[in-house]
Structure formats: C-alpha cells, structure tokens
# Entry
Amino acid sequence: SIRSKEIVRGVRLQLSEFLPPLPGEPGSRSSADHPQPYLFQIMDEIERRIIIDMLERTGWNQTEAAERFLIPLSTLNQKIKRLGIDVRRRGRGDETFSAATGK
# Structure
C-alpha cells in the first residue's frame, strides 16, 4: 500500500520517509530491538521535518514559510520553539539561533 499525502502547493511527502516500518512490513524490527515511539513523538518528528524542509526551501525565511503553510507567522514561531528547531539567522554571517534555548 502507498502511504502518502499531498500538502502545501504540490509538495508530495511519502510517510515512509518519516515513519519507521510498521510491524510485519519489510525492514521492521521487533519491539525488543527498537522500542516503539509514542504517537505524539512520531507526529512531532514529522512536523519538525516538514517545517525544516519548508524553511530550507524558503531560504529560512519564516514569513514566507508561514505564508506557504497558510498559517500565521506567530503559529509557525510557536511550532519552531516547541519543536526545538534551530533557526538560521541570515544576514549576520549565517549563524545559528536555537529557538529552544534562545541562544
């Protein structure tokens, strides 16, 4: 079965890129080998990767990324902080600013 979803203006994501194989699928491991993450951990990781991908596509322009996601900039900033995404501040030597630590 194909597990995919089309979002954000034609960007096509394969869930297999984000999720570990389900039990019984090729490449899956037993729970003794690899503990299963909680649903919220999986969803946070998926959201984190999608946001980082969009930020990379927009040259780390948060305003443009929020517009493409069709969400307010404040919502994107809250998600960036909650997910601990390092935001690259352009124009000051490409240094990194951690939204999680504020440094």
Strands lie at 4-7, 11-14, 86-89, 95-98. The mean pLDDT is 76.
